[in-house]
Model the fold of this input.
Amino acid sequence: MRQTLAAPSTVGLTSDESAPAAKLPDNRTSDGRSTGVRIPAQTVVDSWLLTEHLGSGSYSSVWAARPVATWVGSPADYAIKLLQPKYASDDHILKSLALEKQLGQELSHPHLVPVLDGKIDSRGLSYLLMPRLRGALVSESIARVGRFMIPHALWIMRQATEALAVLHGAGWVHGDIKPENLHVTADGHATLLDLGMACRMSTPAQPSQHGGSLAYMAPERLVLRSQVTHQSDIYSLGITLYEMLVGRHPHRCRSAGQWVTAHLTCPVTPPHHLWNEIPVSVSDLVCDMLKKEPLRRPISCDELRQRLLKLELETLALRHPAAGDSFPSTSLGINDSVWSASPTAGRAAPPRPHRFSRRPS
Done:
């Protein structure tokens, strides 16, 4: 039986108006506010049928969807990012969702996630409609295989840099670049996700209101009255690339204070000191991206893209001979033998990635 999601706590039948509305399971706090609702598959949101739960973040859940008017069994080629009911009237989150919708519709690039449609409603349901991406998040791949092969890591980072250049060209800073916001398909196509934390270029930093993930935040974003620029995103890209090459974050921290100290003062161990198969030239680029002073990082996405492309071509020989040109799928959408570094290459196997308390998008 299909159900039409009409409000945060109620659903009604799709075609039989005489049938009584069914109430979804809903827990409430002592002041009557909803703490969340379990939305079953086969629920209709406007003209979209939710078919499969794909994942959840701190304030939203993502569902596979297809138009209600399509034949039964038609593929669910769309994804709906659905705001959790307990945040339905949260102005800050609604503004973030509205910004993600705006930028996803205004900006277009093959490696930037598009937003096809959506609705922002403080009195009802809020959601974004996007194409469904097959594959895996970079964070999932790191957790599963440890490290990416060097040329593939550079290739994925170059694609993300090209998408970021479009965002910067429009005067925006992404503000929340991390492995959880970078998606890769089985054939290696990368997509930069989640534009809801974007801010205008040269926006004054507000350390008391972190609009992003602290583990990936550039030092200047942690200092009052400093300016947030496109080089803040390059720092976050640098940490992401470091994780892809090494298999773990460059810093190991357990509290917000430790993260702030690490970003502001702690040096980064060059990747080639941890894995001797990583060329010094690749390691140098990562360290340049992670400079504490913004002006010492690559000056623009265009410069970064050119350096990544040069290194990508120089390291092609490091690909597995058996990798070939195909990228067969696995349960995560990425084939281990193609994407992961050889477990016997370099020094000892890398330490397991440290699990941090990161706020999912």
Observations:
- The longest helix spans residues 150-169.
- The chain has a mean pLDDT of 80.
